[in-house]
From TrEMBL:
Region of interest: Disordered: 86-105, 492-534
Segments forming domain DUF2264: 11-360, 370-582
Organism superkingdom: Archaea
Residue stretches of biased makeup (Basic and acidic residues): 86-100, 502-520
Protein name: DUF2264 domain-containing protein
Length: 613
């Protein structure tokens, strides 16, 4: 059931109704005492009690702005369940109640969720705090203050303490002010260049969606709610956001879809939370019409995807329900962090954001180099294909950061359980194997660099195997050059973009072409191809284990396969893809558009690989 089925998602009233439409299906899953909520029986790596608190708290990210922006004349909003929320808050923080949430110790998931409660105290105390009796208010404050005695992960988690403090401050409750300042100082130490942050100490932390939907969004909340008390810090948070905004818009396609890249993609339209946070902070980092267009189109795009269960609950997955692409910390309620997108509802209806007409993206460059995340974002308008080349980041979440390319149309795949290439997750990757059964892709990355518009990485799938990779855009292609140095015999398989499969009983709608140097596939979902520019590998079309791609449940990957004896080998690959509405230019030779060629010379100097631009 699509919770937005009858909602055009155009006006402020539509968006307000959307919050209720998202939250109402959860009520049948609420516990008798109101403190716990769990839409299904699945679990995460933290205890069920924390997952139940997650289900209670995450809807507040949308409900608090909805309440804050309610008509001052009527005092009403689109949601009538605040009595149940207050009952749950009373019981969840009561040590003597069966639904008590229990203590929140070091690095507890419960601190993540109490941040939403703190945010609600800061934004809508008249709904969640003022009607509580004084004894319950003290009980709630005591529970929230546990965050001051706990160690937190050294990353965006530190903002959860700040959000709790903002709530306690707003309702006149005590908290550790010195710790608050120390925490904010630590968070600001994560700032890097060009308005970016790292999600933790910069030398060892990722640049991904946690920068816009966490670091920047929380910073803008603080800048708005604490501006009078901490104006200099508030100004810094705003300045970084203004610098970041023109870069982040490149992650969005013209129709509102965004690049699937990194972890926690099940939060879905949290992708647009940053644009909403700019509006909330009255920060016109881009023209209001452009901000509103970016924000609204992403929500509208998500509303058209099959992301809901039969009961209208947000599922775990990305563009469709699948646990195979989730993280161990994704509980059944995790997707409701998406409600952070609804911050603009806290604004009055006459705010310039709401008064602006949504504008399309401006004419953005075909290729944009982003040095902090080490990406080259590409817009192949002829092929209607929006994707990013990636130098790669070493994290425990492997394929979510280490593929060569990430596409808003074709997604990316993760490793499955089946042996061989069906479960290797080798789309947009070079996979290496000793036995043709177990494959390794770029995962442990030793070095990366951005060299003008070329991305470089050095990686070691085994201690005695080293691969150097260069990536360059060559619209409508991109080119990959690999120097493979191995002391053991290896099989290789290099994949292009994963293509959604057509139906097996409709061969006219599913075409594969393979030969000694290339592989090309076409389905109703588009086309995708790879070419070996040196002619050393054969082409194949390889199906992938179902539900391992974030965007499509069944995919096929055009693949080049080869065998390599110990020694040094050069692999040069051209990759292209087009959406169903794009111009398939498979027969055009790859060309690089720059003044200098990429030149790579074999170790003995006898062979020159030259990709002429």
């Amino acid at each position: 059931m699509n919770a937005f089925a009858d909602n055009p998602l155009q006006t402020r009233e539509d968006i307000a109704r959307a919050v209720s439409q998202l939250v109402e299906p959860l009520e049948t899953h609420r516990s008798p005492g109101g403190a716990r909520l769990k839409p299904s029986a699945g679990g995460a790596w933290f205890p069920d009690i924390a997952a139940d608190l997650e289900g209670f708290a995450r809807p507040l990210w949308g409900l608090a702005p909805l309440a804050a922006g309610a008509s001052s004349a009527t005092g009403e909003d689109e949601y009538d369940g605040w009595d149940r929320i207050r009952e749950g808050l009373r019981n969840g923080t009561d040590p003597d109640h069966p639904e008590h949430w229990g203590p929140a110790g070091d690095n507890s998931q419960k601190h993540v969720e109490t941040a939403a409660i703190g945010f609600s105290l800061a934004l809508a105390p008249e709904r969640i705090w003022d009607p509580l009796e004084p004894a319950t208010q003290e009980q709630v404050a005591t529970y929230l203050r546990q965050i001051d005695d706990a160690d937190l992960h050294d990353c965006n988690w530190l903002f959860f303490r700040v959000l709790v403090h903002l709530g306690l401050e707003n309702v006149g409750e005590a908290y550790d002010r010195d710790l608050s300042r120390e925490t904010l100082d630590r968070l600001e130490s994560f700032a890097t260049a060009d308005g970016w942050y790292a999600d933790g100490p910069p030398a060892e932390s990722a640049r991904d969606y946690y920068i816009p939907w966490a670091m920047h969004t929380y910073g803008l909340l603080y800048a708005t709610l604490a501006e009078d008390d901490d104006p200099e810090r508030a100004a810094r948070f705003r300045e970084r956001a203004v610098e970041f905004a023109p870069q982040f818009r490149h992650w969005f396609r013209e129709d509102g879809a965004a690049l699937p890249y990194g972890r926690s993609l099940t939060y879905r339209f949290a992708q647009t939370a940053f644009w909403g946070a700019l509006a909330f902070a009255d920060c016109e980092a881009l023209p209001w019409g452009q901000l509103k267009g970016l924000w609204l189109r992403n929500i509208q795009w998500w509303a058209e995807q099959p992301i809901f269960t039969d009961g209208g609950v947000l599922s775990v997955g990305y563009r469709y329900p699948t646990l195979k692409v989730s993280e161990p910390y994704n509980s059944p309620s995790s997707p409701y962090w998406a409600l952070k997108a609804f911050l603009p509802l806290a604004l009055e209806a006459d705010h310039p954001f709401w008064q602006a007409e949504p504008e399309p993206l401006p004419a953005l460059p075909e290729q944009t180099v982003q040095s902090e995340p080490e990406l080259v974002v590409c817009r192949d308008r002829g092929a209607d294909h929006h994707y990013a080349l990636a130098a790669g980041q070493s994290t425990q979440y492997r394929e979510k950061y280490t593929k060569f390319a990430y596409s808003s149309a074709f997604g990316f795949g993760v490793r499955g359980r089946r042996p061989g290439l069906e479960g290797a997750g080798h789309d947009s990757a070079l996979a290496l194997s000793e036995d043709g059964r177990d494959y390794r892709i770029r995962e442990r990355i030793d070095e990366t660099a951005v060299m003008d518009d070329v991305l470089y990485s050095r990686w070691s799938p085994w201690d005695d195997v080293r691969v150097e990779t260069w990536l360059a855009a060559a619209t409508p292609w991109h080119v990959r050059v690999h120097r493979l140095e191995t002391e053991r015999p290896l099989n290789s398989a290099e994949g292009g973009f994963a293509l959604p499969k057509g139906e097996a009983d409709s061969p006219a709608r599913h075409e594969n072409r393979t030969d000694d140097e290339r592989a090309w596939c076409r389905t109703p979902g588009g086309s995708s191809g790879v070419r070996d520019l040196r002619g050393h590998r054969a082409g194949e079309a390889r199906g992938q284990e179902p539900n391992t791609n974030v965007s499509h449940p069944r995919t096929v990957v055009p693949t080049l396969v080869g065998e390599h004896e110990p020694g040094v080998h050069w692999l040069v690959t051209a990759v292209t893809a087009a959406s169903p509405d794009g111009d398939d230019r498979w027969d055009e030779p790859p060309r690089l558009e720059s003044t200098e060629p990429i030149c790579v010379v074999d170790a003995d100097g006898s062979d020159l690989i030259r990709c002429d631009r």
